[in-house]
Design goal:
- Among the domains are: 86 residues, no CATH class; 130 residues, no CATH class.
- The longest helix has 12 residues.
- The protein contains ten helices and no strands.
- 18% of the residues lie in helices and 0% in strands.
- The protein is an all-alpha fold.
- The relative contact order is 0.08.
- The N and C termini lie far apart (59 Å).
Length: 337
């Protein structure tokens, strides 16, 4: 028996097969063992004692040793045994709290009426295989669903992957989405592919953007840009206390904000239609930056965004009211939402 690149043992010296994070081929295949002799075996420790595996994967070695062989399927699949893959055994708020970061029980569990903490089966709806290298790359880590051509082509962005389900015409088998009765065909759950391309101001602009809500916090965000805002800049897939999966703080989404600002972090609480805690992370009304909000500056507080939001920031107007009266996904009014 010999040790190979990632510290794994092969059945025989001549049949060594590298299972490597660098190569991204973590899932075992019927060739496991070189000649397939290890495919279908359920007892991993027969060939892979803890003392020799993951020698160069020190970030997970300790976790795997604590969790035991039951954690193997999370990265390497069931090895032909039919065993279910386990994800949250390691990806939880204790062992890997920031991979991904979770801030509450509401996760993308594919229901609207009942929000629950994510389980293994929810992870596997979007994630097929990952190279587990600590860097999130859509083309690698979001590879489960087919595109609108029926191909499992790499997703160029997180949003492009989200739109593989959230559309009207080519939804995924087993994950059909019905528009809510009160929203009709314009429900963003099924209309986002169109919104993103044509009207929604967080997608690709269908115009000059001259009427947009002026003023952005110092960041990489731009109104007229070839890099639209990602869905996950505002929506937390893996855990939040907010409805509609809105992020719970700036360090979860808003990835193009300055690192120092984003990591403070600023809390986000959504109540009813009041999204001001979220909007103010990126939006700072231009007139506020010019005129200030000090007493006697001549600035009209409500109109010009001088009210502080719930997280202490300022820069959006009507900070305590219902943003959805004017700003919605897909609506061709001002900046959308």
């Amino acid at each position: 028996m010999v040790m190979i690149a990632m510290g794994l043992l092969a059945a025989t010296p001549g049949h060594a097969r590298e299972v490597s994070r660098a190569a991204g081929n973590l899932l075992l295949t019927p060739s496991h063992g070189g000649d397939g002799s290890a495919w279908g075996m359920a007892d991993c420790k027969m060939c892979h004692p803890f003392k020799v595996i993951h020698q160069t994967a020190t970030d997970i070695k300790g976790i795997v040793e604590r969790k035991g062989y039951g954690s193997c399927s999370g990265c390497h699949g069931g090895n032909g045994t039919g065993a279910g893959r386990r994800c949250v055994v390691c990806h939880n708020s204790v062992d890997m709290p920031a991979s991904p970061r979770r801030q509450g029980p509401n996760g993308h569990d594919f229901t609207l009426k009942h929000r629950r903490a994510l389980k293994d089966r929810h992870c596997l709806a979007c994630h097929r295989n990952s190279d587990m290298d600590g860097s999130f790359e859509p083309a690698v880590d979001l590879s489960k669903l087919v595109d609108d051509n029926g191909d499992r082509a790499p997703a160029s962005t997180i949003t492009r992957f989200c739109l593989r389900c959230h559309n009207r015409d080519h939804q995924q088998k087993g994950y059909k989405i019905k528009p809510r009765a009160e929203r009709g065909l314009g429900d963003p759950l099924v209309a986002m592919a169109d919104n993103y391309r044509f009207t929604d101001k967080h997608g690709f602009l269908a115009g000059t953007g001259d009427s947009l809500y002026v003023g952005l916090r110092q960041s990489k965000y731009r109104y007229v840009s070839t890099k639209p805002v990602e869905c996950t800049d505002c929506h937390a897939m893996h855990g939040t206390t907010n409805p509609k999966l809105i992020i719970g703080s700036s360090n979860v989404g808003a990835t193009d904000l300055p690192t120092s600002f984003r990591s403070t972090p600023y809390k986000v609480k959504v109540s009813g239609g009041n999204y001001s805690d979220l909007c103010v992370l990126c939006h700072v009304m231009e007139s506020v930056a010019q005129g200030g909000c000090e007493a006697g500056s001549g600035v009209t507080v409500i109109e010009e965004g001088c009210l502080r939001t719930g997280n202490g920031l300022q820069g959006v107007h009507d900070a305590s009211n219902d943003c959805e009266e004017c700003h919605r996904h897909g609506e061709a009014v001002e900046a959308g939402l």
